[in-house]
Every structure is written in C-alpha cells, then in structure tokens.
Amino acid sequence: MDESRIEPFRAGLLDWAEDNLRQFPWRDLDASLYEVFVAEFFLTQTPAANVARVYPRFLSEFPSLDAIRCSDVESLVEVIEPLGFYNMRVEALDEIATSYDSLPRDADELTELTRVGDYVANATVCFALDRQVPILDRNVDRVYGRVFGDDWPDTKREQLEFADKVLPPEQARTYNLALLDLGAAVCTPTPKCPECFANRFCDYYETQYAGVDG
Known about the structure:
Helices cover 58% and strands 0% of the residues. The protein is mainly α. The chain has 2 domains: 3-22 and 132-208, Endonuclease Iii, domain 2; 25-129, Endonuclease III, domain 1, CATH 1.10.340.30. The model has no long low-confidence stretch (mean pLDDT 96).
C-alpha cells in the first residue's frame, strides 16, 4: 500500500466534511440505535431522498421493535411500500422484532439479524454509538478504488481491513459520513474530478486527466 496517500486523503475528507455533509434526521447525534438501524436498513439499495420521505412516518407508527411486533403486516407494507423491496423488508423487520426485544449493540451480533450485512451493522454502531469501525458499500468501494488504485484490494475481507487502516483515530463517525457523501455528490459513477479535493493524489484522476493541464 502506498501510505503516502492516506493522511492527505483523511485530512482532506475531514476538511471537506465541514461544509458538505448532508443533513438527515437519522444523522442527528441524539438518534437512537433503533432509529439509526431503521435508516441504514432502508438505505440499502434505496436513495437517501426516498428514505427521508418515508422515515418520519415509519418512526411515528413504529417507534420500537415492540411496536413492529404488535403491528400487522399490512400496516408495515403500507408505510414501507414506497421504498421498494417491501416484501423483503417487511418480512425481515417482522422476524427481527419477533426474535429480539432490543437490538444488539455489537456489529457482529447485528449481522446475525435477518438480511443485515456488514454495511448496515457497521454503519449502525458507528453512527449511533460512535464505534471506530469501517463501512463499505458501493460508494465507498468506488471512492477508495479510484483514489488508491491498484492498492485497493479485490476481496471484501481485505477491503474492510484496508478501510479500517485508513480510518482516522477517534473520528470514524464524521469520516464515514463524509466518505458516503463524497461518493454520492462528487465521486459519482460520472465523477466530478476537477472539483474534488483528492485530485492532487487520486490514482484515477492522474490516469484520466494526465497531460490535460499541460
């Protein structure tokens, strides 16, 4: 790994975060473990703007696992249907609420819940409990793959190890939020490289824009 890129990327991303983080209710510092979990569970394969439209009503009608457990499936479907994949989501939430009185506070234990993978588990404990853990979704994969080029591993296990090594000490929450937002706003599938802070040391930028300035 070319570690010379790590510190400039960390510092640049945290600086970028000061003015560019998106605002969503599940990102409030006082959001509960349950509230963050619900959001991250819904955000899987669904744009944040769509989740934001459903999220307040869901929490109003189902403020806890107990509320889900005591509800009927039709009520869950009515609220969740606009998000898509509602049959899968309703089935999973119903199974989780039936099996647990409260959500686990450990990422590994969260992955034991129905249809909860590493991303949802790690994002939940990072954003709700300020745990120092990496996150990895398509946006993060794209950002790291472009910035670090061939140093970015191919396997998920190695990618998580890499992402863990890059995390800034004691700042995982802000850093991970910024990583997601950079991938959503700048390092998109059609990237806005000229306006990205990382273009000074980004492998992708160096490859795509070689010789442009000269």
